[in-house]
Amino acid sequence: MGLPSRSLATAVEALFADEPAEPRMHTSAVPGPRSKSLMDGINTLQDQRAVYFVQDIDKSIGNYIADADGNLMLDLYAQIASIAVGYNNPKLLDLARSDKFVRAAMNRPALGVFPPTDWKETLDEAFMTNAPPGLNQVFTAMCGSCANETAFKAAFMYQQAKKRGDADFTAAELASCMKNEAPGSPAYSIMSFAKAFHGRTLASLSATRSKPIHKIDIPALNWPVAPFPEVQYPLEANAAANREAEDHALAETEHLLKTHPVPVAAIIIEPIQGEGGDNMATPRFYQGLRALTQRLGVLMIVDEVQTGMGATGKMWAHEHWNLDTPPDMVTFSKKMQAAGWYHNMAMRASQPLRNFNTWLGDPIRAYQAAAIMQQIREYDLLKLVNEVGDYTLQGLRKLEQQHPAVMCNARGQGTFLAFDVPDPAQRAAIVENIRKRGVNMGVSGHQSVRLRPMLTFQKKHADIFLSRLKDTIEAGL
Question: Residue 200, class by beta-carbon neighbours within 10 Å (0-12 exposed, 13-18 middle, 19+ buried)?
Answer without folding.
Answer: middle
